[in-house]
Amino acid sequence: MNKVLLIDDDAELTTLLQEYLVEEGYDVVTDTDGRAAIAAAAGNTVDIIVLDIMMPRMNGIEVLQRIRKLSQVPVLMLTARGDDVDRISGLNLGADDYVPKPCSPGELAARLRAILRRAGQPAAGVSTDTIRAGQLVLHPGSRIAEWRGETLDLTGTEFSLLEVLARSAGQLVSKQEISKRAFGKPLTPFDRRIDVHISSVRQKLGLREDGQSWIQSVRGQGYQLLVD
Q: What are the residue ranges spanned by the domains of the chain?
């Protein structure tokens, strides 16, 4: 079991990511202080570190600099969306990859698997790398979707949403749960992102023989992926 150290001072996001990664088969330890990452690197006690850049006391860039003086442990950076300066700085200092916040737990898990494979370590979640729901096949590790034997052209967000529904195929999934698992944060009032992206996925899947959508909605509650 791969041991992940997740460093972030956003308690709500940390809890969501930790719960998802544990379900994926990782042993996850969390902390709010970058010095814990430096200690873990020095002691070689974790397989990979997920490190937020914007933190009090010591920011992620400084933490990464100190880590790289001690160890080559894989490090994935969490960056502010669109902040190219932090992203480039992190990669130049030896970060293995980065994910912009707010991040999808599914995308984070996929990035972790890819980094661990490149590092020559067996990645967690191998047994769940392929998700089958009727004619839909998802490969979370590579973020590739197949529909009726053909590759389905999805955006990253669309893949994350469809993955959440596919993992609970045939069951109603609340919008709140979809938001937490796909976007890594709770649903806020008047937030229509889920509806907009679901509409796009519906178009790409087409209609069933009965003329209905493969993704059914229950007004005010959530969505359900049909498999028959």
A: 3-120, 131-225
Extract the tokens encoding 211: 């003329």
Say if CB 74 and CB 46 are below 8 A apart: no
How confident is the model over 75-91, as pLDDT tens digits?
A: 999 987 666 777 777 77
Report residue 192's pLDDT band, with 50, 70 and 90 as the boundaries.
Answer: confident
Q: CA 8, CA 184: separation in Å to the nearest integer?
A: 13
Question: Measured between alpha carbons, how far is 115 from 121 in angstroms, rounded to an integer?
Answer: 9
Tokens 């930790």 belong to which residue?
18
In the CATH hierarchy, which top-level class contains the domain 131-225? mainly alpha
Q: Which ranges constitute the DSSP H helices of 93-190?
A: 105-118, 156-167, 175-178
Q: 3-120, which class in CATH?
A: alpha beta
